[in-house]
Amino acid sequence: METEERSCEKVFSNGDVYLGNLMVMLPHGKGIYTWSDGTVYDGDWEDGKMSGKGRIFWPSRTTYEGDFSGGYLHGFGTFTGSDGSIYRGSWNMNSQHGIGRKQYHNSDIYDGCWREGVREGSGRYAWSDGNLYIGNWRKGKMSGRGVMRWSNGDLFDGFWLNGLRHGPGFYTFTDGSYYFGTWTKGLKDGRGTFYPVGSKHLSKRLEGQEDKKTKLLSHSSSINSEDSIVPSVKRSLSDKISNSFQRGSGRISRKSIFLDADWGCNDSTRKITSSLSLSLRDGQGESEDNRAVAYEREYMQGVLIKERIRNTSKLSHKNKQSLKFAKEVQRSSCVNFFEGHRSYYLMLSLQLGIRYTVGKITPVPMREVRSSDFGEQARIRMYFPRKGSQLTPPHNSVDFFWKDYCPMVFRNLREMFKLNAADYMMSICGDDGLRELSSPGKSGSLFYLSHDDKFVIKTLKKSELKVLLKMLPHYYEHVQEHENTLITKFFGDAQDSIKTWKKDLRIHRRYDLKGSSQGRFTNKDEINESSTLKDLDLTYEFHMDRSLRESLFKQLSLDSLFLESQGIIDYSLLLGLHFRAPEHLKPLLEPPDSLHTPESVISSGELLIPPRGLVLVTHEPSSVSTLPGPHIRGNTLKAFAIGNKEADLLLPGTGRLRVQLGVNMPAQANRRIMQDETSSNEVELFEVYDVVLYLGIIDILQEYNLKKKIEHKYKSLQFDPLSISAVEPTVYSKRFISFLEKVFPLDP
């Protein structure tokens, strides 16, 4: 028996009125619904829900015309706000979702991707005053790779976070001068190079204007106003309709239908970001490589600490590469490989293999490891043909065999390190891909960095793999017994290296320390923001809280004894330093018209730069982050300064961090100013900074080789008893600790 549609008018007890077609007392077909507050919908209905084409008018003069589904704004439509703003684009469940264009009430315009009512993905934002940004967005803010051009012609091409410059970037001034460096939360932070054009004073004046632009940008009313982005509709509209019918007839169900959630920007939209970014450079002259003078600068939270003038005609290969990068910054949010390149296929193979192995071992019930879980024979071996097989998916790499050693052992290690399997795979095997890093050593290994900077994958030589498998049972026991170990964390074929430190603070300098002198220095002309310096480059001593230092050296001794027992040499302490800008130099930020180096603030006092800004406070678990990460395992350290209680590190203006062994450890860095650096012969001066330390033991796969020791001894005319090939494991570990005791001296 067919159900007939009929047209009628229905008045509800709450004052709502419906005029249109009904089917079994439900709106179906064409109809007009008027709420008691004056809101009107005119359009299609299906089983009591607004579905199809329609228009809705609110008393506030807000309107929407477009697609509806299941009672929601869903599909494509135009929303006009009461303030005059207009959004035209895709919708999903009452939220802008997909590709759309919004013109704000102040005439700003955004074209691009949306997710759940906020800007997310690739997009173009044009301010009414002529400023323009093209790039990536996250949660409504400029985040990721993007290019900003100001109305006066200045341009920034680099990385952003929450609407502020954050990460490496390239700033071009209107006069043609440019600065290549790193930013943190909108402030220059770390090393960079300024290439002036014209007079030095003009260049510095322009650079000051550049800092002010970030502040003006951050106060833009449209770009940071979430209220103006998300319409007031949300889900209340469908609830309102359902409630009215339910109260009126008792027959309208509030059950919502399942809708396709696959709404968003397609790949073609993301691919145009780079070409759009490059178009912003049109009309600007190419950067010149042959400028006579450049200024190498070092900043701490926006304060210029040091400056060195250099002749750019003698630029090193690395700096020339930096200039090349500055002209054409590659997107790090996407795959930085080109098809046909060997490392591209290797990267794809690594992702496929890791995804397969982790997916295969994770469902297996947890159990204690057995002796049979170790060794070269404990492995998963699988063939991955390009076309796929019954057990493997088709892929874009070449045909390859995958071997994963000791899967159960590494599965337990991941659990031990409190690493969720899903998070692990998302970091390494996600769509954002891996980034290839240049090898920091001479091994020739390839290094890949996960897109979220949590993990480093290193290719191993056969000799290194052999050492790893041989020491793995003892490594497992050591890690199980010492949760604060500083030794490199292994999660499988992927090696977690503390090289990048997924951290709360920016690492300004990195040191690879072995306690050796032979060849342990870096050419000054080769140093840049990403350089890892060596023993002879370290000119600071680090003074720590007594209890923190005691905990550090207790674990260093335990770890070095373990490596000694395994016959391992040539390992290093990787030391990362985050410098805090001295408080009395902070006024240089406002205004940055006069930039000084430390030499310009030398006084007759004992300290060149008195530090302030790091405070140890009693640990409060609710006040610090407990999100899973590389350092979630390990206890909170106790500090002598607060009565040997568990400590948090309080950084005024930055946040509160949990102090762990090798993570967020505060110290005071002292460097003696040499006599030729000052004009004073009467006062011994020191350069003193507050620093936050990050530490870890790396390069633990080199076994002691007596043959190499003998060969080195007779081939080297300048024999160094601390040379890596000449020291037995016992001697190496003792001298390693002895050297670090000088780097971290015990205060009297």
TrEMBL record:
A Pfam family recorded for this sequence: MORN
Domain of life: Eukaryota
SUPFAM superfamilies: Histone H3 K4-specific methyltransferase SET7/9 N-terminal domain, SAICAR synthase-like
Cellular component GO terms, alphabetical: membrane
BP term (GO), one: phosphatidylinositol metabolic process
UniProt catalytic activity: a 1,2-diacyl-sn-glycero-3-phospho-(1D-myo-inositol 4-phosphate) + ATP = a 1,2-diacyl-sn-glycero-3-phospho-(1D-myo-inositol-4,5-bisphosphate) + ADP + H(+)
Gene Ontology terms for molecular function: 1-phosphatidylinositol-4-phosphate 5-kinase activity; ATP binding
Location of the PIPK domain: 340-744
UniProt xrefs under PANTHER family: PHOSPHATIDYLINOSITOL 4-PHOSPHATE 5-KINASE 8, PHOSPHATIDYLINOSITOL-4-PHOSPHATE 5-KINASE
Official protein name in the record: Phosphatidylinositol 4-phosphate 5-kinase
Annotated EC: 2.7.1.68
Keyword set, alphabetical order: ATP-binding, Kinase, Nucleotide-binding, Repeat, Transferase
